[in-house]
Design a protein that fits this description.
The chain is mainly α. It folds into two domains: about 350 residues, no CATH class; about 230 residues, no CATH class. Helix 14 packs across helix 17, helix 21 packs antiparallel against helix 22 and helix 21 packs parallel to helix 23. The radius of gyration is 26 Å and the shape is globular. About 45% of the residues are buried.
């Protein structure tokens, strides 16, 4: 066993059948040593940043939440082992945590939602990524499924570890053929009122694709009467663009609600329907509509649909020569009707691509084929964001000096592209363990360089807890959202990179000094990042309420999966109990998201996210129960 497991009195899971020395190159040993030293530096920095890690974890695991009392514990001895968790509850009524019941309906929902997929393992891997291994075994494989079943003593299928994403859309309620009703826009005054608030909001700076002046022309075209009840392709594209804009603008927080509310999902469905009549249309309005529908899918957490629109948008922007940098004002004041603001569109697409790389879709806009030159005032937004509110009155003077800050950091998007290429591409599958460790070390160095390049007031911390959250009462909402999104991106990347280290096989450890310690310590860093992620999400719910929903769909499942795997691998570790309680608290955090301004599809997604985590809690509890009984049997 390795030194770490001996120190914690744990069974080392990094076993070797025939431990023997093999001849290894000095290069392999040096790569392991370099990664080991880097991990030691990070661990030291974490200790300095949070000298009471254990107590902090307890604080996180026992938040002030009435749904889970601080005194509540999951007692493995009070849990009955059953042949399948889908048959009955695994928590006895006498347990102090008996309020947590794992019902049959949760799994049935998952089964029905994933019935059309080829295999449930493919569904889980597409949602959670290919970075989950144990001793070289992919978790989302038949061998990985058998391993989890063995550790939990349950008949586990990958329908137990997936989030059923149902794309609720009112398309079925629309007429089956093209008709006047499909093209009917809402009242023009109500539309202008909503869009006026949209163009005054700070959200516009994260989506610099819609130009206020050009969109006025789009509105005029859209509301122009049809010629003999027939709409031209230009009018159809304009109406689709207006519907797409309304599907986003109606979701934003507004200073006052309209007396004539507009259904955001219905607008998205109509825009989607009209796009079917615009196949092959290469125009600014069509591109804007696709980008808006992509954003709407991302808001709802429907990543498959968002990836579909992303691929179409990439093709159109390249057809418009938008992948070639053209020196111009990024806000688009110098553009004309025939020359869309391609630089801004490309920046938005590449920034969004980081989300699909996070869900392990191959990047379509790569650095080698797109000119991603940043503007000279690229970092200017860090100077105005601290003083920015959710809305501001747009005038020429303000509009001239506010640089769009996009939905992410361009340098981070490039880094995610590199992570996907070096760890999860077809070429990366051929890497040996030495090459894998080398890439992990280099990527970790690049993440740290990126983190240090961010201004202090926005720089991600190495560790975040309820007690160390840097929120200040003076911070505006845009400032908080920007800082917390960078914080979540940082922890997400650390989790993804350092969980991949378990791809190393036990045989690879022969003859390479410190590889055991590297695997364990590297995975420990991913656990710290995952706990920090759940803490950040809890802070966001308290701060921005339902606006936190889109962050949950991006980061929540990865953090929960990381903690769950550690519980299954080390069920007798005292930290496993704390992480189990943290996962239960996280499920309550998801359910606490206010639903007053969410669509029905988003509310359903919240319930599915919560049930997903509770299934992980159930499996983790089963693993702890089995390990506890095995230990007692051994002692007796």
């Amino acid at each position: 066993p390795c030194e770490r497991c001996v120190r914690r009195s744990l069974e080392c899971t990094f076993d070797r059948e025939r431990p023997r020395k093999k001849q290894r190159t000095s290069e392999a040993s040096s790569n392991v040593q370099a990664l080991f030293q880097r991990i030691k530096q990070l661990e030291s920095a974490l200790v300095q940043a949070n000298p009471r890690q254990e107590s902090t974890c307890r604080d996180l695991a026992n938040p002030e939440d009435p749904k889970i009392p601080a005194s509540s514990k999951v007692n493995p001895s009070n849990i009955s082992t059953v042949s399948s968790g889908r048959e009955r509850s695994v928590l006895s009524e006498s347990s102090p945590s008996s309020s947590l019941v794992f019902a049959q309906a949760a799994t049935n929902t998952c089964n029905s939602a994933t019935a059309d997929y080829h295999t449930a393992a493919d569904v889980s891997a597409s949602q959670l990524g290919p970075n989950w291994f144990f001793n070289g075994i992919p978790i989302f494989s038949e061998a990985g499924c058998r391993w989890v079943s063995t550790r939990t003593d349950q008949d586990v299928t990958w329908t137990d570890i997936c989030i059923p994403i149902m794309d609720f859309s009112p398309l079925s309620a629309l007429p089956p053929s093209f008709s006047q009703e499909i093209c009917d826009l809402p009242d023009q005054d109500a539309t202008r009122e909503i869009l006026s608030d949209f163009f005054r909001s700070s959200f516009r700076l994260t989506f610099p694709v819609l130009n206020r002046v050009l969109f006025e022309t789009t509105m005029e075209t859209a509301y122009k009467p049809a010629d003999r009840n027939m709409f031209s392709s230009t009018q159809t594209a304009a109406r689709a663009c207006v519907f797409g804009t309304l599907s986003i603008a109606t979701r934003l927080k507004r200073p006052h609600q309209s007396a004539r509310p507009i259904d955001a999902d219905l607008c998205a469905a109509k825009a989607n329907f009209l796009l079917m009549y615009l196949i092959g249309d290469i125009s600014l309005e069509t591109l804007q509509t696709i980008l808006l529908l992509q954003l709407q899918r991302m808001f709802c957490g429907h990543w498959q649909g968002a990836a579909f629109f992303h691929s179409i948008a990439c093709r159109i922007v390249c057809s418009l020569r938008g992948h070639i940098y053209k020196p111009s004002n990024v806000l688009g004041r110098e553009i004309t009707r025939e020359t869309p603001n391609s630089n801004a569109v490309l920046a938005v697409l590449h920034a969004r691509q980081r989300h699909f790389v996070s869900h392990w879709k191959s990047p379509l806009l790569t650095e080698g084929y797109c000119d991603l030159t940043a503007s000279d005032d690229f970092l200017h937004y860090y100077t105005y964001l601290p003083a920015l509110d959710e809305s501001f009155e747009v005038n020429d003077k303000i509009d001239l000096h506010l640089t769009p800050h996009l939905p992410g950091d361009t340098r981070l998007s490039l880094l995610k592209e590199k992570v996907c290429r070096q760890l999860f591409s077809a070429q990366a599958l051929k890497y040996n363990d030495n090459q894998l460790l080398l890439h992990i070390r280099k990527l970790d160095d690049e993440i740290e360089c990126w983190r240090l390049s961010i201004p202090n007031s926005f720089r991600p911390a190495l560790f975040v807890s309820e007690n160390t959250s840097p929120n200040s009462p003076e911070e505006g909402i845009p400032h908080i959202i920007r800082r917390m999104s960078l914080q979540l991106e940082y922890h997400h990347l650390v989790t993804v990179i350092h969980t991949t280290v378990r791809k190393c096989t036990p045989e690879a450890a022969d003859g390479i000094e410190d590889l055991h310690a590297v695997v364990h310590s590297s995975f420990d860093l991913s656990l710290v990042a995952s706990r920090s992620t759940l803490s950040c999400l809890r802070v966001l719910v308290r701060t921005i309420a339902e606006q936190a929903f889109r962050f949950f769909t991006s980061y929540f499942a990865t953090a929960a999966m990381s903690l769950f795997l550690n519980i299954v691998i080390h069920p007798l570790d005292p930290q496993a109990q704390l992480d189990l309680e943290l996962l239960m608290s996280a499920a309550n955090t998801v359910r606490s998201i206010p639903a007053r301004n969410l669509t029905q599809a988003e509310i359903t997604r919240i319930h599915e996210e919560s049930k997903f985590v509770m299934r992980l809690v159930w499996l983790g509890t089963c693993a702890m129960t089995k390990a506890d009984r095995a230990k007692k049997a051994e002692l007796s």
